[in-house]
Amino acid sequence: MLSRGAVRAHLLAARLAGAVATSREVSLRSYRLFGAGDPRVLLGLEPQRRWGEGELVDLMARKCGVSGDPGYRVGPDAIDPERTLAALDAFAERVGEAAARRVPVLFGTGHPHRLLDFYAELAGAMSAAGCEVLTPARGKRVDITTRFGVRTYNLDYVRGVALMREPGARGGASDPGVHSHSPLPIRVVLGAAAEGGGPLPGLVVGDHGWVVGAGQLGFEAIGPADVDDPAMFVGEAEGRVAVAVPLDDGVRSDYYRPLTRYVLNRACLSR
Question: InterPro entries per the record (predicted)?
Answer without folding.
Answer: Phosphatase_SCO2771
